[in-house]
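User: Can you predict the 3D structure for this chain?
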Amino acid sequence: MTVEHLPADAATDEIVSVLRRDGCVVLDNLVTPEVMDRFRAEMQPYIDGTAPGGDTFSGRRTKRTGGLIARSATARELVMHPTVTGVVGSFLGHATNHHLHLTQTIAIGPDEPFQPIHRDQWAFDFFPFPADYDVQCNTMWAVTDFTETNGATRVIVGSTAEPDGLTFDLDQSEPAEMTKGSVLLYTGKLYHGGGPNRSDHVRVGGNITYAVAWLRQEENQYLSVPADIARELDDDLLRVMGYAPGAYALGYVDDLRDPLDVLKGTDTSRGSFGVTAEIEAKIEEQLAARDAEG
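Assistant: Here is the predicted structure, written as structure tokens:
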């Protein structure tokens, strides 16, 4: 099976439908190449200063550079792109809330071999989540063109229903080829891996992933983004970063204070545990659904 491509103006319901069916989908040209060039220019000094990985999984010719929100204004736009946030909100809508799991650029250098196929949700201590419960919705932005030759992400389309612990060879996977400015969306259950780079150029992707907010983040946003920078960011971005309850009573500060109020030194009286009206409504909806089930 090949990766399905949809236009940038595809409806959220259509994108989510393909994502649930295949585990992945490419949105073509969601931003312009100029946006990606700006993003790369902002991140390149940090990429240059990043050491390559120390094992075959992280890639001995691959540089993984995090802290995107602190380091790149353009990254903040990508994190909060309305198409992406709409898809993530719908796909992970069964949970009370979701937050950023990690932000990083992945620069795969020439002669890097095929990364072992894996599931991103294995990061949660290989916990066997129910087959019908998704905990992640991920993006890989094409900062450069993604081709089979330069190491485009390899995916096993439709593999979300497969059991854990499987291994796959390169020829069992498909390259998620896409042009600069396009984005691959994929779930935490999708078997995938970085492709081998057989070109003379570095393949750069922007990996921004989201997870249900009752799970711990892979990248610690509170230390990756210093407080003096965080205080200047938009509140909606801060909530996605984790300055919001993960569910009722998850993530409050000391005397049931809202973490966003603590960060900014404000008091908006949002109520116990800092629960917003939106999260409170979601909790009430979930309780009503459970009562209806019996």
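The chain has a mean pLDDT of 94. The two ends are 41 Å apart (CA to CA).
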